[in-house]
Amino acid sequence: MASDGAWRICFRYGADRWVFFNFLVLLFWAPLPLASNRTWALGLLAVSMIFLFAALCIARLWRAESIFTCLGVGTWPLACLCLFALWLALQWSGVIPGLETADAFNTLQYLLATLTYVAAFSLVLLLVKSSAHVRWLMAVILASGVSQALIAIGLFASRATYIFLFMPFTQGTRATGTFANFDHLAGYMELCIPAGVGLMLAHMGSGENKTLNRREHMVNVLKFMMSGKMLVRLMLVIMVIALVLTRSRMGSVAFFTSMLVIGGIAMLRNPRLRIAAFWLILSLIVIDVVVIGQWVGIDHVVERLQNTALDNEHARGEETVEQRSQTPRQAFGMVIERPLSGFGAGSFYTVFPRFKSADKNSFWDHAHNDYVQLAAETGLVGLGLLATMVLMTIARILILWKEHEPRINRGVAFGVAMAICALLIHSWVDFNLQIPANALVFCVLLAVVWVLVPHTAATKEVINDIG
How far apart are CA 463 and CA 198, in angstroms? Predict the structure, then answer.
């Protein structure tokens, strides 16, 4: 009996470690094949992620554990995501009159991507049960962002012309890394940089307000220079360089706006986080933007912003605000025609030609506005389910920001809040949520918030070593 019990424990925890390791590998892999934004790459990612989730469920059932109990409070946002997947399944199946999709193949592909996000969200809730797990997860997201940044910087400097996975690339103008679009690389940086910021703040801001003399200050500076926090800080510099090299106007605006807004809110709400957040944000602005940004060409981003005029008369070759907003404004006609059900997930390419103006001769796969596209394709029902999930996560973040919370809660909550703010701003003029690698990391960051236990509930939930 004893040996049988030991075997069961070994099987359960061995399976958990194996699934967690492979889950981290998939997170790192997702952006490499053109951000998994190809049918074959998405299929590979989906099959792998769903297989890991199924393997973990089998391991838990073997030990007679309830999966729903293990999900904890994260069940509620996960339920919204599951209902969204069910809504897409109903669109694809066409069993309800008036809800059928206009493009069954693309809706099925969209459903497959959503099931991938459901599996990833569930895996975070089931596997991340300690502060060490949280740090590993955030560290892998950070490492993935740094690897993409290094690839993007290296290729940008090479000014090479080549074909990667059947897609032609010409480097040297705007950094793309292994992404097909530079704006989506900027969106990925907007998610990975906050993960690094969260890691740094999780090790800073202990709340001690001791008066230090000059010698003690120097010792603390030297300790910081030789610590892992300095390595993370250098990684943030590399990713900011890549973000600047994308020359993405809204990507840069979204990142710096989120940094200032969330940083300001955090400093007002949490005195224990105030000093650490202030110095980190100040260093990001002074070192990354003013010093390094000038070296790598942030003036090009500023020039693009200045040339983004409100009308064609002052455009200077850049797409104007009026031109950029034409597609989502015309796509809003799709929302008006089918406000609740939408035309089917992934059907924008098929349906939009009926709503676009005659002067738009090119093809449009996306509305360049995630909110309009989600409403047009999945209706206000689908958009409402996703908005509810994000709003619940924001409410959870506000709880984790309280002054008495452990450092890891406050730090990670800050990083995720920054990522949410940046992506929500960028989504007004782009479609990062339609890119599998970006949407996957976004879902994982949302899920991390739900595995952190608030101080007041720490004695009631079974999560060890948080903080």
Answer: 20
